[in-house]
């Protein structure tokens, strides 16, 4: 019996379904032999935050990470008993188990030969252990949440991964896959660093809509057969084939090998074929929905991913009792992530837009309700408050804040580049007033780097730039600046002139 057949039989005979897996876990957990199964996990992370994610993995799982050349990915080894902890990581978007990795794959010279090799590969891989991991993972995997098609901000169909660059979801999907019904693809590859060709195809080009409907009803009659799809993600100049062709031919061979059913939209197993220059990796997805989808239920026009919010917070190493503010909080993605992860600090979420403050308050309320339902008892609440304020004149005492983490208007979707020329210097000045001299720090995200750099250049006496992380926010090249507050006391400019004015910006 081949490795693949053995794995399939094992799956079909045994604990295929989530409910069964949960019962198994409750009845004494995973078999000790299986629990020790070594496994290589791959994770997609916000670009630029690979090192932050590696630090989190080392801290929480004790595993060293390898950061991929292909930006936005990390790899680490665990034993399978740590799978639940892997799903609790805050810096990772999607997870997969590595079936096999080829660091220097030798592509043949013609397309036909390359595609034939992909077909042959399906039968040669050691699927058995990764499939066991996939099976055990089902009890930890969060189910995909159904999102409303229409949202109140006329952001209908927009992706929510960044600022100012939202494409219509349908266009993105068309661009990526040529299929208008493939919502899952965005989840996996919302990560804009992975701007390469992506195709999800299964078997042949067999699945016409009509055939799919016929297939579905047959499958319902035979629920024991696993459904699968292959997603190919290809980047590199020198390939003589498309991701579409690779997914089709590799997918066809996987189908033949396992006798699984192909299904693009409703599948049990998602096989990943990642090709980056001459590196090829085959994996099995362990997340159905990106792990950044947490905390937020009331979205705004530029809601930040929770994984990116976590990375920004982590950059300034919050300490117990720190006062942490996001003075331009929008929906509150940063302070809410902060309050859930650093609950020994106090977080303040402020914005000058009443709608934004309202959304942030609603997000906090939803989170509290969720945790009350989960725990079955009233919650003590979260260490967070919301307030409507203007960043240019904050109702906070001078030197009273330890950390400022904020995502500034890029001047595209939010605000304007012209307004930033006044706003940015005013922000930096008022932030320098409230931030504690000597120990205070700020982590600021912006795409308007020119304006930011100019504003900062006049403030070297109060802010010192210690680090810049380059990130890709929905295709925009943005920067996260880590600033340290110098020990110099804040002097109000009007005091320097011998008079006291109030607002900093018009
Ligand atoms: C890029 S958005 C923040 C998005 C937020 N991180 C989220 O996840 O929703 C910038 C925010 O700055 C706010 N803002 C702009 N000018 C402001 C000011 N003078 N004072 C306070 N907030 C301001 C906007 O209302 C907007 O919500």
UniProtKB/TrEMBL annotation:
CDD domains reported in the protein's UniProt record: THUMP_AdoMetMT (cd11715)
Region (Disordered): 140-177
GO terms under cellular component: cytosol; nucleolus; tRNA methyltransferase complex
EC assignment: 2.1.1.256
THUMP domain sequence ranges: 167-286
Keyword S-adenosyl-L-methionine: yes
Compositionally biased region (Basic residues): 140-150
Top-rank taxon, per record: Eukaryota
Bias (Basic and acidic residues): 157-176
One Pfam short name: UPF0020
Enzyme class: transferase
Entry keyword set: Cytoplasm, Methyltransferase, RNA-binding, S-adenosyl-L-methionine, Transferase, tRNA processing, tRNA-binding
InterPro entries membership: RlmKL-like_Mtase, RlmKL-like_Mtase_CS, SAM-dependent_MTases_sf, THUMP_dom
Subcellular locations according to the entry: Cytoplasm
One Gene Ontology term of the molecular function aspect: tRNA (guanine(6)-N2)-methyltransferase activity
Oligomeric and partner information: Part of the heterodimeric THUMPD3-TRM112 methyltransferase complex; this complex forms an active tRNA methyltransferase, where TRMT112 acts as an activator of the catalytic subunit THUMPD3.
Purpose: Catalytic subunit of the THUMPD3-TRM112 methyltransferase complex, that specifically mediates the S-adenosyl-L-methionine-dependent N(2)-methylation of guanosine nucleotide at position 6 (m2G6) in tRNAs. This is one of the major tRNA (guanine-N(2))-methyltransferases. Also catalyzes the S-adenosyl-L-methionine-dependent N(2)-methylation of guanosine nucleotide at position 7 of tRNA(Trp).
Similarity comment text for this entry: Belongs to the methyltransferase superfamily.
PANTHER family the record matches: THUMP DOMAIN-CONTAINING, TRNA (GUANINE(6)-N2)-METHYLTRANSFERASE THUMP3
Protein's name in the database: tRNA (guanine(6)-N(2))-methyltransferase THUMP3
Gene that produces this protein: THUMPD3
